[in-house]
Specification:
The protein is mostly helical. 62% of the residues lie in helices and 3% in strands. The strands form 2 sheets. Strands 1-2-3 form a 3-stranded antiparallel β-sheet, covered by helices on one side. It has a two-stranded antiparallel ribbon with strand order 4-5. The longest helix has 28 residues. It is flat and about 115 Å long.
Length: 827
């Protein structure tokens, strides 16, 4: 290709320079291939050199007349011509041509037109590019001088500015709406706060910002961080901030597809700054700024600004719908329902948009707050339902139901649910008794279940009170679900509500029992726990007295909550009341009582309770029962170990283990299947019952399908708390424990190799045997008996198994005994 301009080489138009394209043209074959001629449809540049042909003597190497010249000869001729041109005035004239099609040449008017044809740029653009190149070279030289002078910090700052300008100048950014942003930079600031403006400039030039057409969550956070830090500096000269910078910052901070909880607060601040800078907001920005002003607490001012935009914004088709929807929302929230209704009517009747009738939900909420406008809220709901037609969804009904429940209008809420279920076929408003199709446990149970599932617990409670007033007594299943949901929130207020409802149900149960005793000729009055009395509150006549009788699930919910909160005395009272209520205890309540006694430091009472409830009340224990019992051992309760209590724990733990094997139960969850074996092994190991630990491990292998995982082996060799607290000491213990486990595995593999096993190819059963062998080796290490002969260890194990009643399971391996006591069920 020829150079951009001949003048850049120092040659005039009459110089003897021959362009490379002419040389290449002479080197081409006479008949070029098809792909070459097709590609030459674009404009190409040729120079016609008017020169008399040189006469050279014919030699032996003379080429034929039509043959292409030798390239080496052409290079020599070109060098000779250039040398002659530099010594004497040239008599050559250079003309410029453009070839649009093969065989057609078009003359060009001078060097400027030639530059346009060759580069595709006009002369002014080429001059700008040349200036930019010179500035870049000068900047690089300046950076080098600053670094040589020891001004490395200033050089780094200048380099960051330089790179930012280049990135933004040539790449640009594209917003979510495909809007383009070119060069973005704020110049003209100096002083101590100029560094903050420079940081904002670096953010504006960051390549990752809006790289995919939309900002990320990090982009939004960084944008506000840098802009808020630079605000004070920018406020000294708002006019130096270009408009495209304002628009770009607005686009990032107003993006709502990411987690941006402070979006409106940021937009409010930004709009105030743009107003101070004299920057005119476009229509979309004005709408968002008005909404941000309203949310930030300036409700009257925002509504006034909205009203002023009715002509400038509200009349434009592209902004008609968002403008009037914003007015409906703001006026409804502000309490100006009349204006909100007029705005909604304008929106819904206009042919300029296709609004969503769900905008009326804002008006329904505003009208439902006041008793005087409650009927109007209901009519607005009916209008919305008529407009939606078949588009009315279950979620729409739920939202209206929640609105009426939140203001205590349960009748309208139930009527909305009836509309959803029966398509407006039944009207319950104003009736003393509900129709049978509505006033039954099945229908009301569905409603309560839906409210509880949606998390509207207070609304569900209001529905229970309303239904009981209509002679529809809620079932215990729904009320127990409400009590459990209140407890799961973990809030103190909800705890109080759940307790009040549960004890009210218990009182209903006691009243029923006393009535039954009175009919039988028995008398008596039971004083039970009253949450109002305990909290020092007076019960008023309006307090709800539930007529639904408590069930065992009600007692279980209270027992679990009291146990988890450490309210041992309350749990004891609950247990006593449960007997008066003539409700048989379950193993779940028994487990909660055992846990509560153990947490209160009354381990012996917990064990006695277990004996009493299993032997006298015939309650069948389960896996959770024995987990709670093993936790009553002193080695699991006391931080400072007592040797005497630890020796007692050996006998007690073995007895618990034997009873666990003899009891008829199965595992009910994978979690307890992992937790119970771990607790048993640690309990026996901490009590220093090493032989009992081996017996328990072998028994659990047969009955539980227990196989010690690598994590448990490391924890056993390192200590129980190693995985619970990630301290430096524990990490070191875990590292040493892992190394020790690897050493034991290698030692076991060597023993197998000595017996003829290949060592590396092991079956699944052999791997399980290896894990159990390592576990027993860990026990022997803890007992300082790792060098004890295997036959001696086996003799002690058999003796312990016979004492614990497990001889048939782990010594004789009786399949009948194993099958009878196997604890694996369908989980």
């Amino acid at each position: 290709m020829p150079p951009r301009t001949p003048s850049s080489l120092g040659l005039s138009k009459t110089g003897s320079y021959v362009c490379r394209s002419c040389i290449a043209a002479n080197l081409r074959p006479v008949n070029p291939p098809l792909w070459a001629t097709a590609s030459r449809q674009a404009s190409t540049v040729h120079r016609k050199v008017q020169q008399q042909p040189r006469t050279r003597p014919a030699g032996p190497g003379k080429q034929p007349p039509n043959a292409p010249p030798d390239p080496a000869e052409l290079q020599r001729m070109l060098a000779e011509d250039l040398h002659n041109a530099s010594e004497a005035p040239s008599s050559f004239d250079i003309n410029y041509f453009s070839q649009d099609r093969p065989g057609e040449l078009r003359p060009l008017k001078g060097q400027e037109e030639f530059g346009v044809e060759s580069s595709g740029l006009d002369h002014d653009v080429e001059e700008d590019i040349d200036k930019l190149e010179k500035q870049m070279v000068a900047t690089i030289k300046k950076l080098n001088r600053m670094e040589k002078q020891g001004k490395r910090d200033q050089a780094d700052l200048l380099r960051r500015r330089f790179r930012t300008v280049l990135r933004v100048q040539y790449r640009g950014k594209t917003g979510p709406g495909a809007e383009q942003y070119g060069l973005m930079r704020i110049n003209g600031f100096c002083g101590p706060r100029a560094r903050l403006v420079d940081n904002l400039n670096i953010f504006l030039g960051r390549e990752s910002v809006v790289s995919s057409g939309m900002p990320t969550h990090k982009d939004v956070l960084d944008c506000w961080k840098h802009y808020s830090a630079a605000r004070k500096a920018l406020a000294t000269a708002w006019d130096k901030v270009p408009r495209n910078v304002w628009d770009f910052i607005w686009m990032v901070l107003s993006f709502e597809e990411v987690e941006n909880p402070n979006r409106m607060q940021h937009i409010y601040v930004l709009s105030k700054d743009m107003q101070a800078a004299g920057v005119t907001l476009n229509d979309s920005q004005q709408l968002l700024a008005i909404e941000a002003m309203f949310i930030e607490g300036w409700q009257k001012e925002a509504i006034e600004a909205w009203k002023k935009g009715v002509v400038t914004i509200g009349s434009k088709p592209e902004h008609f719908q968002p403008y009037w929807e914003l007015g409906v929302r703001m006026c409804a929230i502000h309490g100006d329902t009349e204006r909100a209704l007029r705005a909604a009517d304008t929106l819904l009747r206009s042919p300029l948009a296709e609004p969503d009738p769900r905008i009326l939900n804002n008006i329904i909420r505003a009208l439902a707050v006041n008793t005087s406008t409650l009927d109007q809220a209901w009519e607005t709901y009916r209008d919305m339902r008529d407009l939606l037609g078949r588009g009315m969804t279950i979620e729409d009904y739920d939202e209206v139901t929640g609105t009426f429940l939140s203001v205590g209008s349960v009748e309208y809420a139930l009527q909305t649910f009836v509309d959803m279920m029966f398509s407006d076929a039944i009207d319950i408003r104003g009736k003393t008794r509900l129709p049978m199709v509505v006033g039954n446990h099945f229908f009301t149970g569905k409603w309560l279940k839906r409210l509880i599932g949606a998390g509207d617990l207070d609304g569900a409670y209001k529905a229970v009170v309303y239904l009981q007033a209509k002679s529809v007594i809620a079932s215990a299943i729904q009320l127990n679900g409400l009590i459990g949901a209140w407890f799961r929130t973990g809030l103190a207020d909800n705890y109080e509500k759940a307790e009040a409802l549960a004890w009210s149900m218990i009182q209903a149960r006691l009243d029923y029992v006393q009535l039954r005793k009175r009919d039988s000729g028995l008398t008596g009055k039971v004083h039970i726990y009253d949450p109002y009395e305990a909290a020092g509150k007076q019960r008023v006549a309006s307090d709800f007295k539930c007529l639904t009788r408590a069930t065992v699930e009600t007692f279980s919910l209270l027992a679990e909550n009291y146990c988890s909160r450490g309210l041992h005395s309350r749990l004891q009272e609950l247990s006593a009341v449960m007997q008066e209520a003539e409700i048989g205890a379950t193993n779940f309540i028994m487990n909660q009582l055992i846990r509560s006694y153990s947490q209160a430091g009354e381990a012996q009472e917990a064990q006695n309770l277990y004996r009493h409830m299993t032997e006298e009340q015939n309650i069948r224990p389960d896996a959770h029962t024995f987990l709670a019992l093993f936790n009553t051992l002193s080695v699991n309760r006391l931080i400072q170990r007592d040797p005497d209590l630890a020796r007692q724990d050996i006998e007690t733990a073995r007895q618990f283990f034997t009873e666990m094997v003899q009891a008829n139960w199965v595992f009910d969850s994978p979690e307890i299947l992992v937790q119970l074996p771990r607790t048993i092994l640690f309990s026996l190991l901490k009590a220093k019952d090493y032989v009992g630990t081996i017996v328990a491990s072998r028994t659990m292998r047969e009955l539980f399908g227990f196989h010690p995982p690598d994590v448990l082996l490391v924890e056993l060799i390192s200590g129980i708390g190693s995985y619970q607290a990630k301290t430096k000491r524990n990490i070191e213990r875990l590292t040493r424990g892992s190394q020790k486990i690897e050493s034991l595995i290698m030692q076991h593999r060597k023993e197998l190799i000595k017996k003829g096993h290949p060592g590396n190819e092991m079956t699944e059963e052999e791997k399980i045997d290896e894990l159990h062998a390592v576990l027993e080796q860990i026990v022997l290490i803890k007992a300082n008996a790792e060098d004890t002969a295997p036959e001696v260890v086996e003799r002690y194990v058999q003796e312990a198994a016979k004492e614990m009643g497990l001889y048939d399971i782990i010594v004789r391996m009786d399949p009948v005994a194993i099958s009878k006591h196997r604890k694996l069920g369908s989980m």
